[in-house]
């Protein structure tokens, strides 16, 4: 009898070991595809200065342009800043704060506010726009503005990175600004007001730090050009630039 019991126990043990592991798991746990998909809700922070540069030509100036954001993959708070310092005066000082929502793999919708803060009288705007990577990885952005005084504005910008090597990169860049009304207090005319075009060659010592050299063209048009001429300036300037691109 003991022999029969031992044999029966051995057979049951062997049968248990021979059962597939997946079958054992499925009896006690739900399949992986039965679990709900979880979005990544981790909070991240990113900041970058695309331009920290000196511009040298008939006149010299310092130019900055940067942005930072904090949030998840879907929702972010976005800050953008840009401006120029020339002759001890701050010009084109634009500060923007947005709520950004991901609307596709490569694009974000933006809604928020802008304030022109520089040596000229300030002006506040409501803002809405879209930015991201177009096909072939062109970085593009379009932002529309409306002020409490009935002024409308728009900014169109873009850039592209040509990689000669993994560290040596040539970047063409442009920014265009449009307005519907003259604003003499800020020296801005209606229509195409300003075109800022640059070609910069940078070397990424690290991904976070890249000095560069290049050339830029800053053109003022319409009444904006007239305001510049009245102040003794040049509405069309080509300048050599040197600077650094840094992010963290």
Quick structural overview:
This protein has 248 residues and is mainly β. Helix content is 14%, strand content 57%. The chain is globular, with a radius of gyration of 29 Å.
Question: How many β-strand runs?
Answer: 13
What oligomeric state is this? single chain
| Spatial strand arrangement across the major sheet | 1-2-3-4-5-6-7-8-10-11-12-13
Mean pLDDT: 86
Query: Helical element count?
Result: 3
Percent helix among the residues? 10-25%
Strand content: over 45%
Query: Major β-sheet, in short?
Result: 12 strands, antiparallel, barrel
- Write down the CATH topology: Porin
Notable features of this structure?
disordered N terminus; 3 helices; 248 residues; 12-stranded antiparallel β-barrel; mainly beta; single chain; globular; Porin; 13 strands
Mind sketching the topology for me?
Elements lengths: L1 H17 L2 H8 L15 E13 L3 E12 L3 E12 L2 E14 L4 E10 L6 E12 L3 E10 L4 E8 L2 E2 L4 E12 L11 E13 L5 E12 L1 H9 L5 E12 L1
Antiparallel strand pairs: 1-2, 1-13, 2-3, 3-4, 4-5, 5-6, 6-7, 7-8, 8-10, 9-10, 10-11, 11-12, 12-13
